[in-house]
C-alpha cells in the first residue's frame, strides 16, 4: 500500500516534470510573451532615479503608442539588481516579455543564447533601417560579424564633472585636458580629510571594468586579442589599471573611502556634498545630482583627459559606448507589434522626448541634431559618445569579464586604501590571476 | 545554584559583556532610524544631531513597503499554517506507528536540512515553470510557489521537533480516548494536540521566522507583484542616494512582528524545545 | 515504539458490537493511516527538495551555460567534466573552489565554536535566580528573532569606514589609531564572522539554556554537599548532561553556517572580496552571474557530498541520539 501510493505520487510529480520538459523543448515558443496580437508585454530597465518615475514616463509612452497603433503595452519596470536574473530566467523558462531593455554591454552574451530575434534585413527595414543610428551606437548591438539581436535606444557616455566654485576658489581656470594637468589640478583641490580632488567607486566591479577598458585603450591595449583570448595582464592594461588605482595609492587625490563605494551612487554623493571636486561618471548622473540638491549651474562637464602624447597604439577613447538597447524575444507571439514598438521607440519624436526625460543621449542622428541636445553639457557627452567612444568587448562572456577584471581592480583599490601602496607587481599579479580565470572559463 | 561571592562580579561582568555585544547594533539601528539623512552619511555619532521621525514616514513612499509587507505576511502566514498541519500529521505517524519506510523517511526528511539552497534553486525554478506550462498552475511569480517552497523548508525541523515532543507524551491518554470510541485522528486532534501546544507553537514560530527572513528563493521566485520584504528592503540602498536612515526605520518596522511574536511566545519555544529536542 | 498494535489487540478482544465495528475500522486504518498521514509531507518534500536536488545533480553532468539555457534539452552531455574542472586544484577554477572551501571551513569553525562558547557561557550566567534575568534572556534572543537580512544590514551599516564600529574603536575606546576598512580586504573575513556570530549565538544560548534548566538542582546540591567546587560540578555534571543537546546544536549550526548564503551576499553582493568568498556565494556567482549552471551544479553536488560525509561521520562518531526510543 505504501509503495503504490508513493509510486503514484512520484509519477504525478516526476511525470509532470518530464512531460513539461519535453513540451518545453517543442513548444519553447509556446508561452512566449503570453499576449495576443492586440497587446505587448515590455520589460523596461530603471532609467529614472525612482521606479515610480519610470512608470510615469513609460505610461505616457504606452498611451501614445496605443493611440498610434492600437496595440496596448503592458510595462514592467525592473531594477538593475534583478534585471539580469530576470532575463536569464526568462530565457531558460521560455516565459518572458515580448520586448525588453538590456544593458548594451550584455548584448553579445544574450545574443549567444539564441533566445532573441535577429535583426536581419526584414526586421531592420520594419524599424526604419540601420543607417538612422549613430554608428558607435549601432556597433553595440551584437558581436561583430554576427547578425545583431538588439538595437540601441538610449545612449550614455562618461565625461568629467567638475565643481565650478571649487575650481574658482583654487584659481583653476579650465578643466584639465591631459592626465598631467589632471593630477596637478586635483592635487590643488585636495585637502584631506574632507576635501579631495576626485571621487572614485573603487568597489564597483562595473565601474572598474569600464575604466580598465577606457584607460587601456588610451594606452593602446585591449582586453582581448584578435582571437578573443584575454590579455588582461598585457603591459598596456597593467599601466592603465595602475594609473587608475594610483589616484588613491600614489597621487592621493581621491579619498580612500572610495575603495568601498560600490553602488554607483556614493561618489556622486560626495561630489554633490562638495567632498570631491571632480568625478568621472555617465550622463545619467546629472539626474542623480539633481535629486541630491546640486544645481546644474554649479558644475561643468568636460572631456575625459587623455595622455599627452598618446602612447603608440593609443586612442583618445574617453568612454565606452554605454547605453540601453532593445531586444525582442524569439518566442514572442506578437512580432509585428514588437517591431512596431521598437520602431516607435527609435523614432525621432520618441528619441527626443525620452532622452530628455532620462537625461540620456539619442542614438539616432536625426534626434541628435536637435537643439535640445546641444546644451553646453549635453554637447560634450554627445561628442564623446559619437566620436570618442568604443564598445566594451563584444564577447559572450562579457559579464564574467566584468566580474573578473572589475574584481581584480577592486582588490587593488582595497590594498591601496588599507596599505597606501600598490606596486606594479601587485597590479600585474592581480590581473594575471583574473586573466587565467577568464581563459579557463571560456567554454563553448 | 548558589551564588559564591567570588563569582558574583564575574557573573555581572559576563552579563554586561553579552548585553553590550547584543545591544550595540540594536542601538545603532534604532538611533539611525531617527536621524536626518546628513547624519547617516557622515561619521557615526551616538547622539543624533536632530531627532526626526520623517524616515518612518518616508519609507512608505520611497519603495512600496506596504505592498511588500502584505506579500510577506500572506506568504509566511500561509506557509506556517500549512506547514504545521502537515508536520503534525507526519510526526504523529512517525511517533505513534511503526510502518514500512518510517526510518528512511525520517532520515530523508532530516537530511534535507543539509541541502545547499543553490543546488536546487535553478531546478526548482525550471520544475515550477514546467508545471505551470503543463498543468496551467501558477507557481512561478505567484504566492503559491513561494508558499509551497517555504512550507517545505520548515518541514524537516518541524517534524523532527514534533516527533520528539509527541514521544514525550504518554500514549495512555490517546489510548484512553480511543477506547472510548475516538478514531486515531480524533485522538490526535482532541488529546495530543492540546497537550503539545508548546511544541507546536515553537515549531510555528520557527517556520514563520525562517520564511520571513528568506532571501535566496524569494529573489528567484518572485516578481514585482509578489516581492517580499526580504528583497524589497534592498531597494533603499539602490536609490540615487543610500537612505540608511530609512533603511534602518524600515528594518525596525519589518522586524517588529517577528520580534514581538517571538518574545511573547518564547516561553513556549523553550518548553517546546526542551521537551521535544532536548529529551531525545 | 509502536504501542498501537497492542491497544488494538486489547480492542480486538473486547466484547461489544460497537467495539468490533470500530475495531475493524481501526484495524484497516492502522495499516493505511500512517501512510496517508505522511503523504502530504512526502509529496512536498519530493516536489521541492528531492526531485529538484536530483535534477540539480543531473545538470552537473551537462554543459549548461549561457549558450544552452534557452535550449537546455540540447546541452551537451559532458559526464564528469564539470567535476574535473572543479576538482582540478591546479587550474584557476579548481583552486578558487578550494580556496573558497577552506575559507568556508575556517569561517564555520570560528562561528560555530564561538556561538557554542558564547551560548554556554551566557546560559550559565542566566541560569540562576536573580532579579532581571528575564530581561537579559529576552535581550539575548533579539538578534536571533530579527529577520536575517536586518541583522546583516545593520552590521553592514556599522562596518562602514565612518560607521559605528570605528566610532567605538577609534574615538571612544582608542583601541585603534585610525579607522580601518572593515568591508574590503582581509578584514572582510572578520566582519563576516562577527556578523554571523552575533546572530547565531543566541540560538545556541536558547537551546543550551533549555538543556541547563532540565538538570535537576538536586544534582548540584548533592555535589556541593560532597564538597565539589563549582568548576568540578561544571565538568562532571553540567557538561555531560548537556552533551546530547550540544552535539545536535553544533551539527545544526555547522550545516546552517557552512551553507550560509545570506551573510556574504547581503554584505558584499555578487563580487565579494577574496577573504569573504564563501562557498554558497561562490557557487551562486558561477551559476547565476557567469551563467555556467553545469559547473555550478557540479560544485553544489560536491558540497552536498562533503556535508553528507561530515554529518554521517559526526553522527556515527558521537552517537547522536536519532530515535533512541523509536
Compact summary:
The complex is a heterotrimer of chains A (444), B (280) and C (326). Helix content of chain B is 74%, strand content 0%.
CATH class of the largest domain in chain A: Alpha Beta
Query: H/E order of the elements of chain B?
Result: HHHHHHHHHHHHH
**How does the major sheet of chain B shape up?**
none
Strand pairing plus helix content of chain B: what structural class? mainly alpha
Q: What value does the Rg of chain B take, in angstroms?
A: 23 Å
CATH H-level superfamily of chain B: MetI-like
The share of residues in extended strands of chain A comes to 5-15%
Number of domains of chain A: 2
- In whole angstroms, the N-to-C terminal distance of chain B is 25 Å
What is the annotated CATH architecture of the largest domain in chain A? 3-Layer(aba) Sandwich
Arithmetic mean of pLDDT of chain B:
82
Percentage of residues in helical conformation of chain B = over 70%
Largest sheet of chain A: 5 strands, mixed
Please give the CATH class of chain B: Mainly Alpha
List the helices and strands and how they pair.
The complex is a heterotrimer of chains A (444), B (280) and C (326).
Chain A: H1 2-26, H2 28-31, E1 39-45, H3 51-69, E2 72-78, H4 80-93, E3 99-103, H5 107-113, H6 121-127, H7 135-138, E4 151-156, E5 158-163, H8 164-169, H9 179-189, E6 196-198, H10 205-218, H11 235-249, H12 266-272, E7 276-282, H13 285-291, E8 299-302, E9 319-320, E10 322-328, H14 335-345, H15 348-358, H16 365-368, H17 376-387, E11 389-390, H18 398-419, H19 424-441
Helix pairs in contact in A: 10-11, 10-18, 11-18, 11-19, 18-19
Chain B: H1 7-32, H2 37-41, H3 54-62, H4 65-96, H5 102-111, H6 117-135, H7 143-167, H8 172-179, H9 184-195, H10 197-212, H11 216-221, H12 229-232, H13 244-278
Helix pairs in contact in B: 3-13, 4-7, 4-10, 5-7, 7-10, 7-13, 8-9, 10-13
Chain C: H1 4-13, H2 17-59, H3 81-87, H4 92-126, H5 133-145, H6 148-158, H7 164-172, H8 187-213, H9 217-225, H10 230-258, H11 262-268, H12 279-289, H13 293-318
Helix pairs in contact in C: 1-2, 2-13, 3-4, 3-13, 4-8, 4-10, 5-8, 6-8, 6-11, 8-10, 12-13
Amino acid at each position: 500500500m505504501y509503495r503504490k501510493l508513493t509510486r503514484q505520487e512520484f509519477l504525478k510529480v516526476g511525470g509532470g516534470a518530464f512531460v513539461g520538459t519535453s513540451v518545453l523543448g517543442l513548444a519553447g515558443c509556446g508561452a512566449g510573451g503570453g499576449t495576443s496580437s492586440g497587446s505587448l508585454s515590455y520589460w523596461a530597465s530603471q532609467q529614472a532615479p525612482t521606479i515610480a518615475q519610470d512608470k510615469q514616463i513609460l505610461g505616457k509612452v504606452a498611451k501614445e503608442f496605443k493611440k498610434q497603433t492600437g496595440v496596448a503595452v503592458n510595462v514592467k519596470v525592473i531594477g538593475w539588481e534583478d534585471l539580469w536574473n530576470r532575463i536569464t530566467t526568462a530565457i531558460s523558462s521560455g516565459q518572458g516579455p515580448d520586448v525588453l531593455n538590456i544593458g548594451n554591454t550584455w548584448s553579445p552574451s544574450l545574443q549567444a543564447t539564441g533566445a532573441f530575434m535577429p535583426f536581419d534585413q526584414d526586421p531592420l527595414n520594419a524599424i526604419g533601417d540601420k543607417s538612422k543610428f549613430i554608428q558607435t551606437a549601432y556597433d553595440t548591438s551584437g558581436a561583430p560579424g554576427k547578425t545583431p539581436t538588439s538595437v540601441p535606444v538610449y545612449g550614455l557616455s562618461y565625461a568629467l564633472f567638475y565643481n565650478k566654485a571649487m575650481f574658482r576658489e583654487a584659481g583653476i581656470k579650465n578643466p584639465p585636458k591631459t592626465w598631467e594637468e589632471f593630477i596637478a589640478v586635483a592635487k590643488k583641490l585636495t585637502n584631506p580629510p574632507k576635501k579631495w580632488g576626485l571621487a572614485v567607486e573603487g568597489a564597483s566591479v562595473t565601474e572598474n571594468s569600464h575604466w580598465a577598458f577606457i584607460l587601456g585603450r588610451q594606452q593602446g591595449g585591449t582586453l582581448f586579442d584578435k582571437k578573443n583570448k584575454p590579455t588582461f595582464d598585457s603591459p598596456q592594461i597593467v599601466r592603465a589599471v595602475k594609473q587608475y588605482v594610483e589616484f588613491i595609492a600614489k597621487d592621493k587625490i581621491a579619498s580612500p573611502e572610495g575603495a568601498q563605494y560600490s553602488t554607483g551612487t556614493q561618489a556622486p554623493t560626495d561630489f554633490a556634498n562638495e567632498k570631491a571636486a571632480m568625478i568621472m561618471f555617465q550622463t545619467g548622473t546629472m539626474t542623480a545630482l539633481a535629486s541630491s540638491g546640486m544645481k546644474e549651474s554649479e558644475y561643468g562637464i568636460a572631456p575625459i583627459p587623455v595622455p599627452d602624447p598618446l602612447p603608440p597604439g593609443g586612442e583618445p577613447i574617453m568612454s565606452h559606448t554605454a547605453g540601453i538597447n532593445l531586444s525582442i524575444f524569439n518566442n514572442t507571439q506578437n512580432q509585428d507589434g514588437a517591431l512596431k514598438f521598437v520602431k516607435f521607440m527609435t523614432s525621432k519624436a520618441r528619441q527626443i522626448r525620452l532622452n530628455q526625460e532620462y537625461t540620456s543621449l539619442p542614438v539616432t542622428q536625426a534626434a541628435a541634431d536637435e537643439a535640445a541636445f546641444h546644451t553646453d553639457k549635453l554637447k560634450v557627452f554627445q561628442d564623446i559618445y559619437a566620436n570618442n567612444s568604443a564598445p566594451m568587448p563584444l564577447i559572450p562572456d562579457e559579464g564574467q569579464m566584468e566580474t573578473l577584471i572589475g574584481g581584480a581592480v577592486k582588490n587593488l583599490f582595497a590594498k591601496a586604501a588599507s596599505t597606501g601602496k600598490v606596486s606594479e607587481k601587485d597590479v600585474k599579479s592581480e590581473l594575471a590571476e583574473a586573466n587565467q580565470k577568464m581563459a579557463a572559463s571560456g567554454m563553448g | 545554584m548558589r551564588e559564591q561571592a567570588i563569582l558574583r562580579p564575574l557573573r555581572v561582568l559576563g552579563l554586561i559583556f553579552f548585553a553590550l555585544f547584543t545591544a550595540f547594533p540594536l542601538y545603532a539601528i534604532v538611533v539611525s532610524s531617527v536621524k536626518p539623512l546628513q547624519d547617516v552619511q557622515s561619521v557615526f555619532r551616538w547622539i543624533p544631531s536632530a531627532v526626526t521621525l520623517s524616515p518612518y514616514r518616508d519609507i512608505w513612499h520611497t519603495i512600496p513597503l506596504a505592498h511588500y509587507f502584505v506579500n510577506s505576511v500572506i506568504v509566511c502566514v500561509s506557509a506556517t499554517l500549512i506547514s504545521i498541519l502537515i508536520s503534525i500529521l507526519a510526526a504523529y505517524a512517525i511517533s505513534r506507528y511503526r510502518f514500512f519506510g518510517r526510518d528512511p523517511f525520517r532520515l530523508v526528511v532530516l537530511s534535507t536540512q543539509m541541502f545547499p539552497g543553490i543546488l536546487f534553486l535553478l531546478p526548482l525554478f525550471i520544475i515550477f515553470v514546467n508545471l505551470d506550462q503543463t498543468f496551467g498552475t501558477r507557481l512561478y511569480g505567484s504566492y503559491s510557489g513561494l508558499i509551497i517552497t517555504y512550507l517545505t523548508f520548515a518541514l524537516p525541523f518541524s517534524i523532527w521537533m514534533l516527533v520528539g515532543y509527541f514521544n514525550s507524551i504518554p500514549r495512555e491518554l490517546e489510548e484512553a480516548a480511543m477506547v472510548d470510541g475516538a478514531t486515531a485522528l480524533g485522538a490526535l486532534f482532541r488529546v495530543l494536540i492540546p497537550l503539545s501546544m508548546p511544541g507546536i507553537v515553537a515549531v510555528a514560530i520557527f517556520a514563520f521566522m525562517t520564511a520571513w527572513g528568506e532571501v535566496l528563493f524569494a529573489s528567484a521566485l518572485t516578481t514585482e507583484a509578489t516581492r517580499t520584504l526580504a528583497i524589497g528592503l534592498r531597494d533603499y540602498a539602490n536609490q540615487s542616494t543610500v537612505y540608511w536612515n530609512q533603511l534602518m526605520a524600515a528594518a525596525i518596522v519589518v522586524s517588529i512582528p517577528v520580534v514581538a511574536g517571538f518574545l511573547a511566545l518564547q516561553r513556549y519555544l523553550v518548553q517546546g524545545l526542551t521537551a521535544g529536542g532536548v529529551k531525545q | 515504539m509502536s504501542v498501537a498494535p497492542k491497544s488494538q489487540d486489547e480492542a480486538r478482544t473486547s466484547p461489544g458490537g460497537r467495539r468490533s465495528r470500530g475495531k475493524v475500522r481501526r484495524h484497516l486504518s492502522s495499516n493505511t493511516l500512517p501512510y496517508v498521514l505522511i503523504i502530504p509531507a512526502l509529496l512536498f518534500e519530493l516536489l521541492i527538495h528531492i526531485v529538484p536536488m536530483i535534477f540539480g545533480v543531473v545538470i552537473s553532468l551537462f554543459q549548461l551555460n549561457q549558450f544552452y539555457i534557452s535550449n537546455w534539452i540540447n546541452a551537451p552531455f559532458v559526464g564528469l567534466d564539470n567535476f574535473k574542472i572543479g576538482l582540478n586544484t591546479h587550474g584557476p577554477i579548481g583552486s578558487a573552489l578550494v580556496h573558497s572551501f577552506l575559507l568556508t571551513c575556517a569561517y564555520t569553525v570560528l562561528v560555530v565554536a564561538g556561538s557554542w562558547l558564547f551560548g554556554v557561557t551566557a546560559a550559565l550566567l542566566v541560569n540562576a535566580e536573580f532579579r532581571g534575568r528575564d530581561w537579559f534572556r529576552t535581550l539575548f534572543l533579539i538578534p536571533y528573532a530579527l529577520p536575517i537580512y536586518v541583522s546583516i544590514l545593520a552590521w553592514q551599516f556599522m562596518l562602514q569606514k565612518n560607521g559605528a564600529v570605528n566610532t567605538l574603536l577609534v574615538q571612544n575606546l582608542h583601541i585603534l589609531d585610525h579607522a580601518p576598512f572593515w568591508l574590503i580586504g582581509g578584514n572582510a573575513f572578520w566582519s563576516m564572522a562577527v556578523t554571523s556570530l552575533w546572530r547565531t549565538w543566541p540560538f545556541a544560548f536558547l537551546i543550551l539554556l533549555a538543556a541547563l534548566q532540565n538538570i535537576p538542582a538536586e544534582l548540584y546540591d548533592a555535589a556541593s554537599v560532597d564538597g565539589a567546587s563549582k568548576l568540578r560540578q561544571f565538568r562532571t555534571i553540567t557538561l555531560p548532561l548537556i552533551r546530547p543537546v550540544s552535539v545536535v546544536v553544533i551539527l545544526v549550526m555547522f550545516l546552517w553556517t557552512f551553507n550560509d548564503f545570506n551573510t556574504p551576499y547581503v554584505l558584499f553582493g555578487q563580487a565579494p572580496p577574496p577573504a569573504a568568498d564563501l562557498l554558497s556565494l561562490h557557487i551562486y556567482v558561477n551559476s547565476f552571474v557567469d551563467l555556467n549552471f553545469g559547473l555550478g551544479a557540479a560544485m553544489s553536488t560536491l558540497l552536498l557530498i562533503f556535508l553528507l560525509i561530515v554529518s554521517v561521520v559526526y553522527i556515527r562518531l558521537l552517537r547522536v541520539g536519532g530515535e533512541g526510543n523509536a
